[in-house]
Amino acid sequence: MSGRTQGSAEALGPGVPLPEMGLTVAAVARRLGVAPATLRTWDRRYGLGPSQHSAGAHRRYSSADVERLERMRRYVLSGVAPAEAARAALTEGEVEPDAGARHGGGQVVAIPDGTPQARGLARAALALNADACRVILAETLDRRGVVWTWDHLIAPVLVGVGQRWEQSGRGIDVEHVLSEAIQSELSSRVINDNVRSVAAVVLASAPGENHVLPLWALAAALSERGVEVRMLGARTPWDALGQAIRRIGPGGVLVWSQTAGSGDMTDMAVLPDVRPEPLILLGGPGWHPGAPPRGEHVDDLSEAVARLARAAGAS
Ligand code: B12
Predict the structure, then answer these.
(1) Ligand 1 nearest-atom number relative to CA 209
(2) Which of 35, 156, 213, 271 has its CA 20 to 30 A from that of 301?
(3) For the chain, what is the largest distance between any 2 Cα atoms, rounded to a whole number of angstroms?
(4) For the whole prediction, is pTM greater than 0.70?
């Protein structure tokens, strides 16, 4: 129905639907921006060749083959060793935890049980390569969604980078590049024009708290489920949060404390009593021990997303 010819489709780049009969090596090479010889090597060494068998001399790449190759190209560009990249590309990222252990010799950020993507992200961050970080993040977010990407890619790398800083005092630059890439990829996915929730969710870090990445993960995951999100961001005083609650009338609120310096809960008693009462959740390792005067603690991203989505009346 499109009336496209094989020739014109082959001349166009990524994003253009493939003709049903598939693409030649030369066309795939043009589309991906890699040499035909590289494609042949990937075919020979890693089995990333065309899956369509035909009687003729020229086998053609299907759209699934090309997608696999696009993943391979992204992983390689972002610093993942080719054998690991191929394994991840072939298995759509489902790689057994120790699959790439033998490539870990030069690794400087320790990520126990890290996936190839996690090792690639750590390497890209160590190289201060924000673009490569974003490519890996975007690719994984597209394929696996926010919760999986946070739990299996982002959080392990953040913890590894944090430990490296703690042990060596090095790597604030790495932390900054990585944090910026994570925040911009996650925040670009917070889109309030597809809202299906009855009420909004308000997200804020505690007074004095500058760490905000888990809030962006929550915002993106809620947005993925059609929940309206109002992000107040870092260092939100309790009275400002109280005013926002009065104005917005949210279904749920989550306050994040990463560091003990921001984990004092006593002043949260100033939060207003509004009807209907929003669900108030406290997340993060910074909160001081003891029962909070308002709300309750929550331990992980998926639980927080589920409870807040329910509280916001998302179907
Ligand atoms: C990214 C980062 C930064 C970024 C923040 C960028 C941003 N926009 O948020 C920058 C570079 C700015 C920064 C600065 C600082 N940071 Co910092 N930072 C981190 C890092 C690497 C990740 C933080 C994060 O997002 N963690 C979230 C997840 C990945 O980790 P977690 O909270 O431990 O996860 C647990 C639970 O919370 C739960 N969980 C995980 N995800 C989620 C999500 C939800 C919704 C829920 C409910 C639960 C949950 O599961 C985990 C297992 O229990 C941590 C290392 C770490 N281990 O966290 C250090 C860390 C938090 N930073 C630290 C410090 C000391 C600082 C600085 C003071 C000094 C410095 N390193 O530069 C400054 C101070 C900033 C300030 N002025 O307040 C220390 C805190 C020590 C402490 N216990 O108080 C840490 C732990 C590093 C370390 N190992 O020492 N930091």
Answers:
(1) 78
(2) 271
(3) 76
(4) yes
